[in-house]
Design brief:
single chain, 502 residues, alpha+beta, OB fold (Dihydrolipoamide Acetyltransferase, E2P), BirA Bifunctional Protein, domain 2, 8-stranded mixed β-sheet, 5-stranded mixed beta barrel, 15 helices, 18 strands, 34% helix, elongated
């Protein structure tokens, strides 16, 4: 029998002993006053003399993360996921039920402790226990060396253990929640309404991406998990809801990398009567405000460098960025044949459909993206890769669109929305032609969306912001899996080894 199996069997015996003594190892509730973090917040400033005079009596629940015995006195640490409270136990002072609970306690158990707050001789705020209650008997031990495990995939698979023993993981998701709340506050302050749109759609639209397909048995139809909520949100603009947003879960049937997870979270918002430049101003201002509120500064440590979010941010067209970072002469960015030759000379993979816009963006992705570390808006993206964006009046080959890059990653995408139904129908037909040429990510023709535009959609700007990647930047996390509580992983093989229980 392995050491882990021995420990599990030992804990099962203790559970049986509790039950035999009439003690419930898994009660349904526990009347408590404060958790450990709240205890420190309310009473952490009181001296030993203050506590002795006040006789503060409380009941506190928590997970046992440390257990130290000193003869007739023992100490344990109760954790609530953020901080700990030390509990002093004098065996002789416990009644029979509480004594049995103490003798059955293992690391990882959830206990409730009732007693009086005090300070030890070392000054640590401590609960002198008069009673103990078993709240949940842990049948498996905690992996005490979890934080140092080389196999980080196990941290993703068993996120519950990662959160227990690695405080920094919890901090990542607290920052993530603060970012989401910050965006809600910023948009609500501008008069936006938060809405919900379908996650299962009869036609996957709103982004150039390959969808997941599912089946609705009752209707006997195929449905798609949404790749973006864009077309539904813009239908709301048509309906007179002029400022709407959705914090949405979207799904794209693509590869997995440090920057990509098939299931991800975006913020999308649509703002009637404004254009893409207004969105850029709003974005850089909001990001800088969020950094100040969430982190207390506008400078982010990121993979050994520092990103400065202080506005204003750089703004470059796609062609300007290629000329600057790839050293390509501007004249060679005007013709399809020159772009194809440039990609070939650099050994870059050519796109499936080799039109001007696809070739230009392939060159951009191959030569520029990794260099865009400081916040940079890349503007004037080609029409071929922007089927839903309004054309630029000065050069109809391009659109009034931007992509925001930070840390070498695309973080946001926005544009002045195309609201001419005839032009939109023409763009959809161009996308269908690209699909016929082998581009299986090209947009499908959405007839109902065109019909909605025919009723009149006001001029508007729309933007999508990647919450996962932004959280990576705000927490200096090198992989998107670090900022998603339960990232998609291959199914675990039967009999795969367990994390160490040492």
């Amino acid at each position: 029998m392995s050491e882990l199996e021995n420990q599990i069997e030992h804990r099962r015996r203790k559970r049986a002993e509790l039950a035999a003594a009439g003690i419930q190892p898994f009660p349904s509730s526990y009347p408590f006053d404060f958790e450990p973090t709240e205890i420190h917040g309310r009473f952490g400033g009181l001296s030993a003399e203050d506590l002795e005079r006040a006789l503060v009596q409380v009941s506190v629940p928590g997970r046992v993360r440390a257990l130290r015995s000193h003869g007739k006195t023992a100490f344990m640490d109760l954790h609530d996921g953020r901080s700990k409270l030390q509990v002093m136990v004098r065996r002789a002072a416990l009644g029979a039920p509480a004594g049995a609970v103490f003798e059955s306690t293992d690391l990882g158990d959830y206990l409730g402790a009732s007693g009086t707050l005090m300070r030890t001789r070392t000054g640590e705020l401590t609960l002198l226990a008069a009673d103990l209650t078993m709240l949940a008997k842990a049948m498996r031990p905690l992996p005490e060396k979890w934080h140092g495990l080389a196999d980080v995939e196990q941290r993703y698979r068993r996120r519950y253990l990662d959160l227990i023993v690695n405080p920094e993981s919890r901090r990542v998701f607290e920052v993530r929640a603060a970012l989401v709340q910050g965006f809600r506050d910023a948009l609500n302050d501008e008069g936006f309404l938060e809405v919900e749109t379908p996650m299962m759609q009869s036609l996957a639209g709103g982004a150039v991406a390959r969808p997941f397909v599912t089946r609705h048995n009752a209707l006997d139809i195929d449905l798609y998990l949404r790749v973006a909520p864009e077309l539904y949100l813009k239908r709301l603009l048509v309906g007179g809801m002029h400022r709407v947003y959705e914090i949405n879960r979207s799904f794209r049937n693509e590869g997995i990398s440090t920057q990509h997870n098939p299931e991800f979270t975006m913020l999308e918002f649509y703002w009637a009567f404004v254009g893409y430049r207004h969105l850029m101003d709003f974005t850089e201002r909001t990001f800088a405000d969020l950094a100040q509120k969430v982190l207390g500064r506008q400078q982010l440590p990121w993979q050994g460098r520092e990103l400065d979010l202080t506005p204003p941010w750089r703004r470059l067209t796609v062609k300007e960025a290629i000329a600057e970072h790839a050293g390509v002469d501007r004249d060679r960015l005007e013709r399809t044949e020159d772009l194809q030759a440039e990609l070939g000379s650099r050994g870059c993979e050519l796109p499936t459909v080799r039109n001007y816009g696809n070739l230009l963006m392939s060159l951009f992705e191959a030569t520029v993206e990794e260099h865009l570390q400081q916040p940079t808006f890349i503007t004037q993206l080609p029409v071929e890769v922007s089927p839903l964006a309004k054309q630029n009046p000065a050069d109809p080959r391009f659109t009034d669109r931007f992509e925001l890059y930070m840390g070498g990653m695309e973080i946001a995408n926005g544009f002045s929305e195309l609201n001419d139904p005839e032009v939109q129908a023409q763009r959809f037909r161009q996308q269908l032609a690209a699909r016929e040429q082998g581009d299986d990510e090209a947009h499908r023709f959405d007839h109902d969306y065109v019909r909605a535009l025919e009723h009149g959609m006001p001029p508007a700007g729309g933007e999508g912001i990647g919450i996962d990647r932004l959280t990576m930047l705000f927490t200096d996390s090198g992989s998107i899996r670090d900022v998603i509580l339960f990232p998609l992983l291959r199914p675990e093989a039967v009999g795969e080894s367990e994390p160490s229980a040492d």
